[in-house]
Amino acid sequence: MADFTPVPTLEGDARFDAYVARPEGSPKAAIVVIQEIFGVNEGIRRKCDNWAQAGYLAVAPDLFWRLRPHIELDADVPAEMEEALGLFGKFDQDKGVRDLEAAIRFARKEIGGGKVGVVGYCLGGRLAFMSACRTDGDAFVGYYGVGIDNLIGESHAIGKPVLLHVPTADGFVSAEVQQKMHEGLKDNRHVELHDYEGLDHGFAAEMGKRRVEDAAQLADRRTADFFAAALA
């Protein structure tokens, strides 16, 4: 079962939609799936469906709702890529993290108070890291997160497990930035980083030209094992 469901903001002054995929039986935990700059598109919905098939309640909040609800863009269409980059520049990330906290609370309530993991991609990878610093989620995974180097100063607030997937040829995250991430996080016992040599941004996209099958499967297997341990 899967459909869009309204989620109240933390302030209770508005609602935004989230794609919610439910497992057949009782969920063993919940996972909040954070979109790329392309919105809650088919690829993100498929990721939620996969988590539901694995026994989790999966929730993908529509974080661009303040800009325009239900944006769905395709990374393989140049005009839509340009539109997505423009949305990234307009998006208020601090409000986005508050909406993620609202989604975490919604998910936790839906499963009766159990554990909630967070996984994000691209912009969502950055927001997953911000969520590790600022929310009460139970475990966090970031795929090719952008600009994490300028969030290192917040990392002292991380008290739950964090896993970061880092493609070494990421066109949006330079080698210098990657080095800053490794150096800045190497002494944090809660954070684990995995490099993917020669791979570019978006290698684990569920669909489209960016996907690199073997690497995507490896990263997703590591994520599944990580959540199985952290959310047990």
Defining key terms:
20% strand, eight-stranded mixed beta sheet, alpha/beta, 232 residues
Q: Can you describe what's shown?
A:
It is a single chain. The protein has 232 residues and is an alpha/beta fold. The chain has one domain (2-231): Alpha/Beta hydrolase fold, catalytic domain (Rossmann fold), CATH 3.40.50. The chain contains six helices and eight strands; from the N terminus they run βββαβααβαββαβα. An eight-stranded mixed beta sheet has the order 1-2-4-3-5-6-7-8, with helices on both faces. A hairpin with a 6-residue loop joins β1 (2-8) and β2. α3 (93-110) packs across α4 (123-134). The two termini are 23 Å apart. The model has no long low-confidence stretch (mean pLDDT 98). Residues 16-230 form the Dienelactone hydrolase domain. It comes from Sphingobium wenxiniae (strain DSM 21828 / CGMCC 1.7748 / JZ-1). Pfam families: DLH.
Summarize the structure.
By secondary structure, this protein is an alpha/beta fold. The protein has helices spanning 42-53, 78-90, 93-110, 123-134, 175-185, 213-230, and strands spanning 2-8, 15-21, 30-34, 57-61, 116-121, 139-143, 162-167, 191-196.
